[in-house]
DNA sequence: CAGTGTTATATACCGTGCTATGTTTATGAG
DNA sequence: CTCATAAACATAGCACGGTATATAACACTG
């Protein structure tokens, strides 16, 4: 019994497949980050990158910018705040809004990520996607195979590989 | 603040984006099923389809066929069994293995899904994907937009639409 | 300025995936 | 036959997404 059932369902199972493919990517990204000594979860880096690029901003705008639901952002922020990566202060005019900023530590983390981990991850994912073409389902199939053949952490070199299935 | 932050991260955030895109698809698929009077969660249908196609099988083979981790399958089966959709009996030779089959009710559900809901969903997702082309990231961008423009439930007709972004 | 509605955030809880580990049963080596 | 290992399934608990709703502060109407 090989795992061909799913593919035979075509568009019907596209949702689960995308979801799980995403999870696999996130997990492998997490490994790369861990190798580089980061403890912040991979899923939080888009938030940090946004803060770093845009400067301090409030919770709703973060959620909108990241296309996430607000409670998810609140949860991430709670965790990041506990780790001393971000702080929040009240808005001077409107006491409902919390203004979130990176701490000094947070800025260090982002800086370190930007010039080591981010490029490695970019290269790895780009490498995994390098040979993809055609309709979405075909690309999903192929990407799944790519990740099974060689995980992201094996793809962080200088674009060397082209290992097709 | 629009939600362009994520896209600007490129391959870096591909994992989260795929995951959430998958979740969105699943949720919209769920709506279509609910409209057709199904209470079984969308995520369980691939399992039912597999059982229906292959006949009775054990937990591990199901997990392998669906490319899911075994505990997830066990959990789905518990829920489906509670709803009277599947039953399990012990393997005659090996008392470790549980053989899972559809109940009469389960077969009815699958039959009904196969000739009403499945085709609708296929059409809807195919419609949403109809205009996609190019590299994976571009297709993801476009599909996100498609789903925002018109949800799956608005796409269940006879392939009529081609609403590009 | 009281009351009502709206906005920003927080809390609670659910779904669906995962890994790690426990339990029971088979199996194979000595 | 006994013990060690392996296999099949179950359980526990985590992560990260979501929705629904509560709470607090603001803003506007009358």
Protein model, in words:
By secondary structure, chain A is mostly helical. Helices cover 59% and strands 7% of the residues of chain A. Chain A is built from seven helices and three strands. Chain A has helices at 5-8, 14-35, 45-54, 59-66, 70-82, 104-129, 136-149; strands at 57-58, 86-90, 98-102. Chain A has a three-stranded antiparallel sheet with strand order 1-3-2. In chain A, a hairpin with a 7-residue loop joins strand 2 and strand 3. In chain A, helix 2 runs parallel beside helix 7. The longest helix of chain A is centred in the last third of the chain and has 26 residues, at 104-129. Chain A is globular and about 55 Å long. The model of chain A is unreliable at 158-165 (pLDDT under 50). The first copy, chain A, binds a DNA duplex (30 and 30 nucleotides) through helix 2 and helix 5.
DSSP strand (E) fraction of chain A? Answer: 5-15%
The number of E-state strands of chain A comes to 3
**Strand neighbour order, sheet with most strands of chain A:** 1-3-2
State the assembly state of the protein chains: homodimer
Low-pLDDT residue spans of chain A: 158-165
Termini separation of chain A: 21 Å
Work out the helix count of chain A: 7
- Rounded mean pLDDT of chain A is 83
Order of helices and strands of chain A: HHHEHHEEHH
Helical fraction of chain A equals 55-70%
Structural class of chain A: mainly alpha
Shape of chain A: globular
User: Taking Cα atoms only, what radius of gyration of chain A do you get, to the nearest Å?
Assistant: 19 Å
């Amino acid at each position: 019994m090989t795992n061909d059932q799913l593919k035979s369902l075509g568009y019907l199972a596209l949702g689960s497949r995308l979801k799980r493919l995403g999870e696999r990517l996130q997990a492998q990204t997490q490994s790369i980050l861990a190798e580089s000594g980061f403890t912040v979860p991979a899923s939080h880096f888009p938030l940090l990158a946004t803060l770093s690029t845009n400067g301090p901003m409030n919770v709703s705008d973060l959620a909108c910018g990241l296309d996430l639901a607000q409670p998810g952002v609140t949860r991430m922020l709670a965790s990041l705040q506990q780790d001393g990566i971000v702080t929040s202060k009240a808005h001077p005019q409107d006491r409902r809004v919390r203004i979130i900023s990176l701490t000094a530590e947070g800025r260090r983390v982002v800086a370190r990520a930007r010039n080591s981990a981010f490029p490695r991850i970019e290269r790895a994912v780009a490498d995994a996607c390098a040979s993809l073409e055609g309709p979405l389902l075909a690309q999903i199939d192929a990407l799944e195979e790519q990740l099974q053949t060689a995980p992201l952490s094996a793809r962080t070199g200088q674009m060397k590989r082209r290992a097709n299935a």
